[in-house]
Amino acid sequence: MVKLREAYPFGEIRRQAKAQLAQPTASFHDKTVVIIGVMCSEAAKVLAQLDVGTLVFGVRNVAKAEMLVDEIVTECGFARERILVKQVDLVSFESTKAFAADLSQSLPRLDVLLVGSATNNTKRFVTGDGWEENLQVIHLSCALLSILLLPKLQDSAKQRHSPAVISNVSSSSVRMTAPMMKFPKVNQPKPPAPAGYLRDMSDGKVTWKLAQYGACKIAHYCWTEALSSLLDPGQVHVHSLDPGCTRSPLSTSSLVARAYLKAFGRSPLICGRAIAHSCLPVENSHGAMLWDYEVEKPTRFMTSAKARDMRKIIWDETRTVLEALSPDAVQIYADLDQKIAGMSSDRIIDCVKE
């Protein structure tokens, strides 16, 4: 049972909202950073001020992104030719795969993959691929993109002799949604595909519709944590970040969200600084959740037996989905399997053990 004060640590969230984070000082000189979603617009400005080599925006709305580019050039004095805008629609697996292939072929190097795209539909929409939209955008497509770009990130780390980074923008909903979710039952026979826990989540059987966003964030966090256990942090550093709450199209979509924002919201600049900082291989953050500039202590829920079971199920089921979508994903997972075989048991999170 998740304790109420652990799921809703309003005191901590209030302190986070009032925190004044200093501007990051680490240079991003000559690094290539791919940003998924215009939601990370303030972080892009911070990265520009830190002399990032190349910014690549992967967005659904190109016109909106071009307006952001104009702002960065004007406000930061950043060279327009160092910013690329590419279209990707995460509600489409084909668009996601095409985007990953484009980046793999066209970019000389990829140092940071910043995953900040999300949707928060309070009504249920199903994509053309047959998945609930929140689940596909927040988890499945982002997992597909991370897997397909993993070889590029690893090659870039070898070139630079410095870790590449996958940073996933999460939220406090990872804590708050846990008490409202149904967890998978691991002792029952595995249902035939396409049934399973992810399919139940897609069909609205795991939590109520207003909590679907948080459930999908939990799914992706579980998957990210499992992935990190298979990667050498000296090559690819993986973590998630809770940057706090700021005004955005997602946060103003309902009366409850607006009230929450009024009580716990912070300026876009402070959120941008937190997100930019998460693009660094922060000490002890590999596989963990960052709370601004600090590594957050895992909640009791995320270290529970139920959470370990859920991580394994989400990892396995996501692998089944992604391998069906891409032969490249099959090969990349096979490479990860070889690394598992060569690891000591204490390096592997229980959720991905055979």
Automatic annotation (TrEMBL):
<dbReference type="InterPro" id="IPR002347">
    <property type="entry name" value="SDR_fam"/>
</dbReference>
<dbReference type="InterPro" id="IPR036291">
    <property type="entry name" value="NAD(P)-bd_dom_sf"/>
</dbReference>
<keyword id="KW-0560">Oxidoreductase</keyword>
<dbReference type="Pfam" id="PF00106">
    <property type="entry name" value="adh_short"/>
</dbReference>
<comment type="similarity">
    <text>Belongs to the short-chain dehydrogenases/reductases (SDR) family.</text>
</comment>
<protein>
    <submittedName>
        <fullName>Short-chain dehydrogenase/reductase SDR</fullName>
    </submittedName>
</protein>
<keyword id="KW-0521">NADP</keyword>
